[in-house]
Specification:
By secondary structure, the chain is an alpha/beta fold. Helix content is about 40%, strand content about 20%.
């Protein structure tokens, strides 16, 4: 059981403990021998995206979320976590990140449902802090709506972040989508043609692509998507609304494609329908580790 009382005391009386925990954390290489990655994502709350299936505030209970994250990070084969500063720092203070990959989430300003959702400001980590904390990279969301001027500001900011991360030798994990509004809601186009187009756009961002990785949705005809890039790719779990067995089957098929290196999954594993976080994580790990790098 995580020691939440100690966490609260450190938060109140010893804020410097965050930097101390980061400095003393055991680190590891980004990729190990099998060339695969299994990352748990927990950056949804900072964008106001708290819902899981039909529970609108499932991720609002921070203690419940942290318990689920600690369980996940303790499972064999889980390489690390993707999160915003508040969650990463909670996990640091709980001692859950030794020997793990840490990816800092950078742009969370495009709040879910907001009129400015596609003007996705960088309100989280920056490259300098990610490097100073000894983390492994930064993640950014790049949604492109050709009818929304906010998209170009997001693309410009993403390009700057990719350049700044690369200058420090750190991974830039880019999650691209072609998007549009339907009844004032931002909807991502999950056709293979649209995803491949988004890949083409974000692959050219920044002054170098040497450290750029892609975080891509699993869609029909993933072969077409992956034909559009030589960059390493991780699959995102997406909205966990479907049947878990069908989801795992889609992941398995996509993980066998050249260039796909693993999974970055959040809600689908942290909040499985049967509540068994460890079993859900183990099933995903088995898919990632069963594949071979190309």
């Amino acid at each position: 059981m995580p020691d939440f009382e100690r966490l609260r005391e450190l938060r109140a009386h010893h804020p410097g403990a965050v930097a101390e925990a980061a400095a003393s954390r055991d680190r590891r290489a980004l990729l190990r021998r099998d060339g695969r990655l299994m990352i748990v994502a927990a950056d949804h709350p900072a964008r106001g995206a708290l819902g899981v299936r039909d529970v609108a505030d499932a991720m609002a209970d921070r203690y419940d979320l942290l318990r689920r994250l600690v369980i996940t990070l303790q499972r064999p084969g889980v390489d690390g976590v993707l999160g915003t500063p508040d969650i990463i720092e909670d996990l640091l203070l709980l001692g859950a990140l030794d020997g793990k990959i840490v990816i800092g989430s950078m742009n969370r300003g495009g709040l879910q449902g907001a009129a400015f959702e596609l003007d996705d400001r960088f309100t989280g980590y920056d490259a300098a802090t990610i490097a100073a904390m000894g983390f492994d990279g930064g993640k950014m969301l790049a949604r492109i709506d050709l009818s929304d001027p906010g998209s170009v500001a997001t693309l410009e900011s993403c390009a700057r972040a990719i350049t700044e991360l690369a200058a420090r030798g750190l991974m830039a994990m880019v999650e691209p989508f072609i998007a549009h509004r339907v009844d004032d809601r931002v909807v991502n186009d999950l056709t293979a043609v649209a995803v491949r187009r988004s890949v083409a756009v974000v692959s050219g961002l920044g002054t170098t692509s040497a450290y750029t990785w892609l975080k891509l949705p699993v869609v029909d005809d993933m072969e077409l998507v992956m034909s559009g890039t030589t960059l390493p790719a991780l699959l995102l779990g997406g909205d966990p609304s479907g049947d878990p067995e069908q989801t795992y089957a889609q992941w398995k098929q996509a993980l066998e494609l050249p260039g796909v290196r693993g999974l970055v999954v959040g809600r689908a594993l942290l909040y499985p329908p049967d509540g068994d976080v460890a079993a859900a994580v183990d099933a995903a790990v088995s898919l990632v580790r069963a594949g071979s790098p190309t």
